[in-house]
Design goal:
This protein has about 210 residues and is of the alpha+beta class. The chain has 3 helices and 12 strands. The protein has one domain. A 6-stranded antiparallel beta sheet has the order 7-6-5-4-3-10.
Length: about 210
């Protein structure tokens, strides 16, 4: 007896191709999503590293800054994109030297052309890894917010310093001036109080700090 042999029908072949195509599409989508997740995780890591370094430098500077120095000039001197802080190193006070001594200079600068923030300590310059689209520095004095401040001219510290950072995440290139609107809300913003600064109503300071952390 002859055994009948039967091949795939056209319908079966079409169904098989459709199933294989669906499986390949799902695999490709999974691979793309995995790559996007890795890139997103890497970007977030760079941003966290950037703001940690930036905010730590500012916190240390505001805690031990000097108003004026014969060697370096103003202890706090800056504008909207650059801030220079002259601060005293903190010692233990048990080696015969003053607890605050050895003045050092820390400069924080945003290069808009390069899209990077750099921190310079003495001769060491550290360019932070995350691309930054904009950075704004504001200074709170007794008479309100200022875009620039020099402690030697004021004869005192500001009440505090606010720093806002907008990271470059490949959004639209028509980003202009940063503003406190929903469309341009900073990715990270923090207010640093200056030790030895003018006394301000604690409730007002608390209101400012809560506002900048939103």
């Amino acid at each position: 007896m002859r055994r009948s042999r039967r091949g795939f029908s056209l319908l079966e072949a079409i169904v098989g191709i459709a199933i294989a195509t669906a499986l390949l599409g799902a695999l490709a989508l999974f691979t793309v999503n995995l790559g996007d997740a890795r890139e997103r995780l890497s970007r977030i890591s760079r941003e966290i590293e950037c703001v940690d370094a930036l905010f730590s430098a500012l916190e240390r500077g505001c805690a031990t800054a000097v108003v004026d120095s014969a060697e370096f000039g103003a202890g706090i001197d800056g504008n909207e994109s650059t801030l220079r802080i002259v601060r005293a190193a903190v010692g233990l006070g048990n080696d015969g030297r003053a607890a605050l001594s050895d003045l050092t200079v820390t400069t924080i600068a945003f290069d808009q052309g390069a899209g990077r923030v750099a921190i310079t300590r003495g001769l060491e310059r550290d360019e932070l890894p995350a691309p930054v689209r904009a950075m704004r520095i504001r200074y709170l004095a007794e008479d309100g917010w200022q875009d620039a401040f020099a402690s030697d001219e004021a004869g005192a510290f500001p009440v505090g310093i606010e720093v806002s950072v907008w990271f470059d995440r490949g959004a639209s290139a028509d980003f202009a001036e940063p503003a406190d609107s929903a469309a341009t809300r900073p990715d990270r913003r923090r207010f640093f109080r200056c030790m030895g600064g003018p006394k301000v109503d604690p409730l007002a300071i608390r209101s400012i700090e809560s506002e900048v952390t939103r």
